Here is the input.
Amino acid sequence: MPDNNIRKAALSWFRSKYQIESDKIFTSKFYTPQESWSNTRVWFFQIPLDVIHSNPPEKIHLICENHLAGEPFIYLRVSSLFFLKNLGSFDVDQKEKVARIYLSAESADMFKEVRGKGKIDFNPYRIS
Here is the structure.
């Protein structure tokens, strides 16, 4: 069975390219339609609510496994304030104290959150 955990490779790529040390780095493998709940291509993140409620606000780093040509990963840098402002639009599990973020990897709505109510667009936070 192949190893589906890309975190080690993603962190290595991220730290070599951006030289950022943070404990607010979240990674996601690319999920094919056969692997995802939505039968579409997505990235999936679970962001702890205490990270979102950080004071002072912090940058949250999302690293997506790239399924397209180019770099092996895609980097999104998002303020915790953005998550806090849009918390009601995400799938939030109060019992596990996480916000579940499902970002589309489909070309028509790339980087839009597809499970929550708001279809929040993360495209502006992509760092090249």
In short: Residues 7-127 form one domain. The mean pLDDT is 93.
